[in-house]
Structure formats: structure tokens, C-alpha cells
Write a structure and sequence with these properties.
The chain has helices spanning 2-15, 27-34, 38-50, 69-93, 96-110, 125-140, 145-165, 174-186, 190-218, 220-224, and strands spanning 24-25, 55-57, 61-63. The protein is mainly alpha-helical. Strands 1-3-2 form a 3-stranded antiparallel sheet. Helix 2 packs across helix 3 (38-50), helix 5 packs antiparallel against helix 6 and helix 6 packs antiparallel against helix 7.
């Protein structure tokens, strides 16, 4: 479907950093570039706004979300409020199939290189997808589609912040953090799992907040071109 294709193209362009924070997303220009109608582009932009990848500006069209500490802190706060609760529900409700999916998702994440030589200091696309799949699988045991949709939106917003700031952090042991998450969840210790996840999200928030400032001063598009 044409609208699906244009939505995917625009989404990928934003996630690759082809449009910097705050850049205008002009429907007329985008429609001309892609050889499609204005209606198709507007539909795609409305969907992107719903996903948190575009801001809908009153009487001014659309733009890539602006980068600010406040915006990221709000996303981080929301994740710390929602995701540990979802994980607690997953631990309490998840069945054997959920356990198997968690093990498989963690295995894939642990075997996927976080960085590739051509990606410079940015996480590889394969690792980013394995990372998303592991975190979502952990929470899928909650059985609540509304909460999972909320997670999807927050994760997408977090990934956009990660694009702007995700440099190597040699002092952080992400492999160990993810292993502890898997172990706590599959041991059916809801309290421990929620606490481990809260700590994991706190470290992520701190790292991204620091990286946002550094990454943007160095120039987003130059760095994103290496990813």
C-alpha cells in the first residue's frame, strides 16, 4: 500500500538522522521528492506524530521533535513509572511459552554484536532490534495490549533520543544488566525483576541525557551518516 510505503520511508529517514531535531517536515516538499500525492504524505505524517516521531504544530505543519533535556526526562520518567509495573504483571501472569520467548530473545541479544566497524560509535541496527525485542518480550507476559502499545510509543521516542546520543559507554556493563533482567524475570521474583528494570532504565536515562548534550554539539548529521 502506497501510504504504508511512504510512512516507512519517512520513519526510516527520521530514525537515520536525515532530519535533525526541530527540522520542518514539509508535506509539499516530501510529496514532490517521493512522487506521491499530498494526501498520502499527510497521512504518513499524522501516523508519525502518533508514534512520537513527529510533532504536529498548530497552523504550521509538522516537524521532527525538538531535542531537549526536559522532553527526554519526561520520556524516561514515564518509562520508569510504567515498565516495571508491566514486568511485575508479566512475571505474575506469563506462561511457559512466555518464558521460552524471553530465553530466546535474550539469547539473540547476547549473541548480536552491539557495534560494527562501519557503524562507528553508534549501536548497530541488528543490535537495536534485538534489544527492542528482548525488552518487549519481557513485558508481553502482562497480556495487556493497551500497555504494550504505550511501551511501543515510549520505546520509539527513546530510540530517537538514542540516535542523537548513543555513543559508547565503556563503563556500563549492558550484557550483565540484561542477564540479570532475564534471570530475575524467569525466577518469578516480581519484586527483584521490577527493581532490576528500574535501575536499568535509570542508567539508560542518565547516559542518554549526557549524550544528548555532547552529541548535538558535535553535529547530528555527521554522526548519523556513520550509522
Amino acid at each position: 500500500m502506497l501510504s504504508e510505503r511512504v510512512h516507512a520511508q519517512l520513519r526510516d529517514a527520521i530514525m537515520r538522522g536525515e532530519h535533525a531535531p526541530g527540522d520542518a517536515l514539509k508535506p509539499q516538499v516530501l510529496a514532490k521528492e517521493r512522487g506521491v500525492s499530498l494526501a498520502v504524505v499527510r497521512e504518513a505524517l499524522v501516523r508519525l506524530a502518533g508514534e512520537g516521531l513527529a510533532d504536529r504544530l498548530p497552523n504550521r505543519g509538522f516537524a521532527v521533535p525538538a531535542c531537549s533535556d526536559r522532553r527526554w526526562q519526561e520520556i524516561a520518567e514515564a518509562r520508569r513509572a510504567v515498565e516495571p509495573v508491566m514486568l511485575r504483571m508479566s512475571v505474575e501472569r506469563g506462561d511457559v511459552d512466555w518464558e521460552a520467548r524471553v530465553r530466546a530473545a535474550h539469547h539473540r541479544l547476547s549473541r548480536t554484536p552491539a557495534y560494527e566497524p562501519e557503524d562507528g560509535e553508534f549501536y548497530s541496527a541488528a543490535w537495536a532490534e534485538a534489544h527492542r525485542a528482548f525488552h518487549r518480550t519481557l513485558l508481553e507476559g502482562c497480556g495487556n495490549d493497551v500497555l504494550l502499545e504505550t511501551f511501543d510509543r515510549m520505546w520509539t521516542a527513546s530510540e530517537l533520543a538514542r540516535l542523537w546520543s548513543a555513543r559508547r559507554n565503556p563503563g556500563r556493563d549492558g550484557v550483565r544488566e540484561h542477564r540479570l533482567l532475564e534471570e530475575a524475570a524467569l525466577s518469578r521474583d516480581a519484586d527483584a525483576a521490577a527493581e532490576v528494570l528500574a535501575q536499568h532504565l535509570t542508567l539508560t536515562a542518565e547516559g542518554l541525557t549526557e549524550g544528548l548534550t555532547e552529541g548535538l554539539t558535535e553535529g547530528l548529521k555527521e554522526g548519523a551518516g556513520e550509522a
